Amino acid sequence: MRLRVGESGKNFIGIGKRSKIRVTMLTVRALKANGFRRVGETMQKRKLGKSNLEVSAIGLGCMGLSFGYGPAVDKQQGISLIRAAVERGVTFFDTAEVYGPFTNEELVGEALAPSRDRVVIATKFGWAPNPADGGKWNALNSRPEHIKEAVEGSLKRLKTDLIDLYYQHRVDPNVPIEDVAGAVKDLIQQGKVKYFGLSEAGVKTIRRAHAVQPVTALQSEYSLWWREPEQEILPTLEELGIGFVPFSPLGKGFLTGKINNETQFDKTDFRNIVPRFTQENRKANQALVDLIGKIAEGKKVTPAQIALAWILAQKPWMVPIPGTTKLNRLEENNGAAAVELTADDLRQIDSATSKIPVQGARYPEALQKLVNR
User: Fold this and answer.
1) What is the tens place of the pLDDT at every residue in 325-357?
2) Same domain, yes or no: 134 and 103
3) CB count, 10 Å around CB of 330?
């Protein structure tokens, strides 16, 4: 069923094959939370920090279409999903050179080519093949000369002459962050990049980079089951006027309530090596999902929408980028922008979740060493 606005502008009209249904404005919010919008109506926008980079309140993390969570989706399926997101008001799309590698950027570039002037594309640099490990893309490389080579490949794959937001994917301890920021500053001056971002960087690194080239956004994991950024990162971003882009805002799918201790992941799924996703820890962490489910039931929305709405309610300069491979999940996630949580709702959520300790590390030790540098 598609929703169209009546001539009065006061009603939504659902037009089906056999019937016509008129819905009063009292149900508009619930309809929006289920992904329905007026024809021509777009999702609300947000600005990332003090920059002029304005994007949809909820973006789309594209990684899982090609990499990380099992086999890649069919190319046409991926293109259709990304284009469906554009049609539904999403303007912020996240990818990276290493996703594939290369294949996710190629997918995103082809999918967004018809709407390039209406969307914001974020991608990342900083990884390279590791000769000591059979050429696997697990070596850090943020040398300025490498960055300037990487951007050319990303521009080509993304079918564009400008990358809107260019993140350093992980901090390279062998390259001063000032050199990294300086290299991106050069790319900005050359018109190849518009804004500079960091991913999973620590407070000192953020400050040092920002002093050379203003950082528009930091991308890091943040959700109801990973709140560490609240300790130092978020106050620093607010002080400096830097936007925040939470990835894995749904806890890598766990907060949706669709995963339990019996769930079996594909052998290529990254979650197989994540301590938080061991069968024992999933069973222990179910208490948090059950709590979110009860809150969602009271609001007549889904657990995923509560988890995303909670992030949106934290600060106006936060833009979560949930990922999905399914159209119904895309619409569900987008509907979170219409879910309103009151100050009392937020206090109750904080109070309840604080009593449920989450079990398991969010990354294996080797990967955890790469964050907050």
Assistant:
1) 999 999 999 999 999 999 999 999 999 999 999
2) yes
3) 22
d(Cα 366, Cα 137) in Å, to the nearest integer? 15
Query: Structural domain tally of the chain?
Result: 2
Residue 30 has pLDDT above 90, yes or no: no
Domain residues for the domain of 14 are 1-41
Verify that 59 and 186 share a domain, yes or no. yes
Q: pLDDT for 218-263, tens place per residue?
A: 999 999 999 999 999 999 999 999 999 999 999 999 999 999 999 9
Whole-structure pTM value? 0.90
CATH number for the domain including 133?
Answer: 3.20.20.100
- Give yes or no for a contact between 126 and 141, defined as CB atoms under 8 angstroms apart: yes
- Candidate list 69, 99, 166, 222, residue with the active-site label: 99
- Whether residues 214 and 327 share a domain: the answer is yes
Does some domain include residue 232? yes
Report the alpha-carbon angle 291-294-298, nearest 5. Answer: 145
Residue 195 annotated among the catalytic residues of the structure: no
CB 195 within 8 A of CB 92: no
